[in-house]
Amino acid sequence: MDNLAHRCLFVTGGAGFIGSAVIRNVLFNTKARVVNIDNLTYAGNQETLIDVSKNQNYTFSKTNVCDRDALMRLFDLYRPTGVMHLAAESHVDRSIDSPHAFIDTNIKGTYTMLEVAREYLDKVSLEEHALFRFHHVSTDEVYGSLGNEGYFTEDSPYDPRSPYSASKAASDHLVRAWASTYGIPTLISNCSNNYGPYQYPEKLIPVVIDKAIREEPIPVYGSGENIRDWLYVDDHAAALRLIVESGIPGETYNVGGSQERTNLDVVQSVCRRLDAIRPRTNGHSYSELISFVSDRPGHDFRYAIDCTKLQNELGWNPTQSFESGLENTVVWYLDNQHWVKSVLANKYGGQRLGLGANE
Questions:
Q1: Does residue 141 have an active-site annotation?
Q2: Active-site residue (options: 143, 164, 200, 303)
Q3: β partners of residue 188
Q4: Which end of the chain has the lower number of beta carbons within 10 A, N or C?
Q5: Angstrom distance (rounded) from CA 85 to CA 95
Q6: Which position among 38, 89, 93, 141 bears the catalytic label?
Q7: Are 154 and 144 in contact (CB under 8 A)?
Q8: Is 333 a residue of the active site?
Q9: Does 164 participate in catalysis according to the annotation?
Q10: Which runs of consecutive H residues, i.e. helices, occur in the chain?
């Protein structure tokens, strides 16, 4: 059953990695209309959505989520029944070097979206108000760091450790406050580490692929023993659509892949796939390029998500194991080097970030 048929969804940050996966999922699986609201900052690229750009249910608007007047015009024009708010600065290392952008987009941008949604809902009918959902997409990093055991649940206390996670924690709190104070029907989801096609090439897996095929040292922070739960982006997109379709307003849902790996395990796994798919000319393994570098400041030891609530209440389960998802990812990056070169052009040269440099 298509619960989104003939409805209009706003997806903020839809030209980014997760946002573009959400838009493809919605357009390929429903009859909803999607308006992509993205300011096309460094990590946003319309080539990421080339396969839906001509879809009759797709519209793009180059708009900053901090621009209240422009957003209000979009709300009045398209009369959305839902907002999936993904627009955010998301790279921890960048937040260490340049936190101001994270405060602006993640906190001020979320505040502005909530205020515009509040003003819009004050003008619509009771039926439209009842249909409306504001789905805020967040991260497991708001919960802080885990030891060797245990999992983050929807009731875990917040303990952010980086400018990025602090900005996302603040935006989560704003969403809950606006729901409680102003009655906006909100949903929050917190996800584990995403990976897959179209991920901006500053994140771990695309960095490893890029460094390896360039025959450059592959950096691993510290000892490489930090642990993350890995979630394939298309599985995440399916969960987000399910949440906005069927989630209960006021609830939070954690989304995880249940695929914990140390960072070193991830890097070695990428190297093994590359060894099999595109062997080095010298016959050696790409793992010989691994280079341990100084750890980044405040590097949380372990994240792990308990997504039992999402599974039991909404019936979601991931379809990809880490191994199958990684195979898809490595093959995609090797086959789409033109996209990598395009999004990196004059934006990011592969240098290390997150050393705490002055802005």
A1: yes
A2: 164
A3: 136, 252
A4: N
A5: 20
A6: 141
A7: no
A8: no
A9: yes
A10: 17-29, 68-78, 92-97, 100-102, 109-121, 126-131, 163-182, 204-213, 233-246, 263-277, 308-314, 322-335, 337-344
- Selected catalytic residue, list 38, 89, 93, 140: 140
Give me the amino acid identity at 178: W
Nearest CA among 176, 189, 196, 162 for reference residue 86: 189
Task: Give the number of residues written for the chain.
Answer: 359
Q: Are 121 and 132 in contact (CB under 8 A)?
A: yes
- Please check whether residue 247 is in contact with residue 314, taking contact to mean a CB–CB distance below 8 angstroms: yes
Which CATH architecture best describes the domain 8-199+230-259+302-320?
3-Layer(aba) Sandwich (3.40)
Q: 58: closest CA among 82, 31, 77?
A: 31
Give φ, ψ of 10 to 5 degrees: -90, 130
Question: Encoding tokens for residue 91?
Answer: 């790279």
pLDDT in tens, 17-51: 999 999 999 999 999 999 999 999 877 788 899 99
**Residues 6+ away with beta carbon under 8 Å from 88:** 13, 105, 106, 109, 137, 167, 168, 171
Task: Give the tokens for residue 89.
Answer: 């600065």
Interacting residues of 174 by C-beta distance below 8 A, sequence separation 6+? 107, 110, 111, 114
Give residue-wise pLDDT tens across range 150-183: 999 999 999 999 999 999 999 999 999 999 999 9
State residue 351's pLDDT score.
52
CA dihedral for 174, 130, 189, 326, sign (positive or negative): negative
Judge contact between 193 and 155, C-beta under 8 A.
no
Side chain identity at residue 146, one-letter code: L
CA distances from 176 to 13, 157, 252, 292, 330 (A): 21, 14, 10, 41, 38
